[in-house]
Amino acid sequence: MTEKQRIERILETLDTYYEKEVICYLNHENPLQLLIATMLSAQCTDDRVNIVTQSLFKKYRTAEDFAKADLEELEQDVKSTGFYKNKAKNIKACATTLCEKYGGEVPQDIDALTHLAGVGRKTANVVRGNIFHIPSVVVDTHVKRISIRWGLTLATDPVPIEMELMKKLPKEHWIRYNTQVIAHGRAICTARAPKCLDCMFLTVCPHGLTKRLKDLPAPAQEALERGHMY
Predict the structure, then answer these.
(1) Is position 24 annotated in a ligand binding site?
(2) Are residues 143 and 173 in the same domain?
(3) Could you tell me the pTM of the whole model?
(4) Are residues 228 and 149 in the same domain?
(5) Burial (Cβ within 10 Å: 0-12, 13-18, ≥19) of residue 89
(6) Residue 189 labeled ligand binder
(7) Which of 41, 142, 204, 216 is within CB 3.0–4.6 Å of 185 for a Cys-Cys bond?
(8) Closest CA to 49 of 89, 78, 83
């Protein structure tokens, strides 16, 4: 099986088992809210961020509100998301720039977004893909881990992974690849103790085959040896 055929099989399987419709796991009603929520999601679960933003977005409704916020008060507002001092500082600085340069609106341009305080390519691509529907590859912890396991990249840094996936994946799959892989990473291909024998990608996953070959039932091992599985 060529790499192109394997990627096609992976994408077909993702579409079979996971929603084709792009799902954003961070609650938001507008671009600013998604930008802030994604900044808070660094080293934090989406569930925790959604709990925090439920009250946060009622207290701060505009970029100007965040820009004028008392820093120590904002720190307490986001404390439970972790790294709260740095996150609060970046949110306030980011909002200030939005007010000063963009009339309080979130820009679409990747360079403009990544020049905002606390905004890297992952955060920028989440906003671009989910809000502005611009084809974007989002490399979060799930995409990084699983793309490496699937052998789609040898890189370990998110930016090279993003660039490599952009070359290998059809553009129409870019944003939904992220949301589908998140779902797969949470359900089966977990960071610790992935459920390889229950995985629908086992036959196209070098990691799963290598890691779990000894656990396969005899018929599957025989099929593998005959070249019927990979």
Answers:
(1) no
(2) yes
(3) 0.85
(4) yes
(5) middle
(6) yes
(7) 142
(8) 78
User: What single-letter amino acid sits at 169?
Assistant: L
Q: Which of 71, 44, 12, 5 is nearest to 200 (CA)?
A: 12
The SS3 assignment for 25 reads: coil
Domain that holds residue 51: 31-130
The structural domain count of the chain equals 2
Q: Which of 130, 158, 179 is the last residue of a domain?
A: 130
Question: 192: which DSSP letter?
Answer: S
CA 212 to chain centre: 26
User: Angle at which helices 158-168 and 174-187 pack, to 10 degrees?
Assistant: 120
Q: Is 99 known to sit in a ligand binding site?
A: no
**Are 113 and 154 members of one domain?**
no
Q: Is 44 annotated as a binding residue?
A: no
Tens-level pLDDT at each residue, the chain (230 residues): 899 999 999 999 999 999 999 889 999 999 999 999 999 999 999 999 999 999 999 999 999 999 999 999 999 999 999 999 999 999 999 999 999 999 999 999 999 999 999 999 999 999 999 999 999 999 999 999 999 999 999 999 999 999 999 999 999 999 999 999 999 999 999 999 999 989 999 989 998 877 666 665 666 666 655 654 44
Give the residue numbers annotated as catalytic, written as ranges.
Answer: 122, 140
Give the residue ranges of DSSP H helices in the chain: 3-17, 31-40, 46-59, 63-67, 71-77, 84-102, 110-114, 121-130, 141-149, 158-168, 174-187, 206-212, 218-225
If asked whether residues 18 and 58 sit together in one domain, one would say no
